[in-house]
């Protein structure tokens, strides 16, 4: 094999190795964070629900005050304790891993007897990297939903 051919093969090999090495970290950083736990807490002026998420890009959650909760993807009504309901949408998050195994092993629906306004919490959707959480509340009040990082968390504060 001539010297120019060997140099060309070496250059191609190095280029391929560099592109594979550069692509690997990008996949890890852009992975979909998965739900690992749901925690609740009662503060003096608000109830807090925290969705603990695994590593990945921090999602941008949103919420809607709704008359009833609808499960995704079945479109069935979710029966949950509460006078009013809050539908929290967390795009680019999931409650299962890439193999379909659940990453959240807690109850899908549970009562929150220690909170003043939030009566119940439910995972109502986990479909195509879109996580939906439903809250049943006693009264319609101010809701604040935001993300914290290191580790990833979605925080839902519901005023009393």
Please tell me about this protein's structure.
The protein has 160 residues and is α+β, with helices and mostly antiparallel strands. Helix content is 17%, strand content 41%. Strand 1 and strand 2 form a beta hairpin.
Amount of beta strand: 35-45%
Percent in helix: 10-25%
Strand order of the largest sheet: 3-6-9-8-7
Poorly predicted runs are: 5-12, 20-30
Mean pLDDT: 87
| Record field, number of beta strands | 11
Main sheet specs: 5 strands, antiparallel
Question: What is the string of SSEs from the N terminus onward?
Answer: HEEEEEEEEEEE
Number of helices: 1
Protein name: AMIN-like domain-containing protein
Pfam family, one: AMIN-like
Domain AMIN-like: 34-160
Keywords: Signal
Q: What would a concise description of this structure say?
A:
17% of the residues lie in helices and 41% in strands. By secondary structure, it is of the alpha+beta class. The radius of gyration is 22 Å and the shape is globular.
Write the layout of secondary structure elements.
Blueprint: H1 3-29, E1 35-42, E2 46-53, E3 62-66, E4 69-70, E5 77-78, E6 84-91, E7 109-111, E8 118-126, E9 130-137, E10 143-148, E11 153-159
Antiparallel strand pairs: 1-2, 2-11, 3-6, 4-5, 6-9, 7-8, 8-9, 10-11
Protein name: AMIN-like domain-containing protein
Signal peptide: 1-23
InterPro entries: AMIN-like, TAT_signal
Please give a handful of descriptors for the protein shown.
1 helix; 160 residues; 4-stranded antiparallel β-sheet; 5-stranded antiparallel β-sheet; Immunoglobulin-like
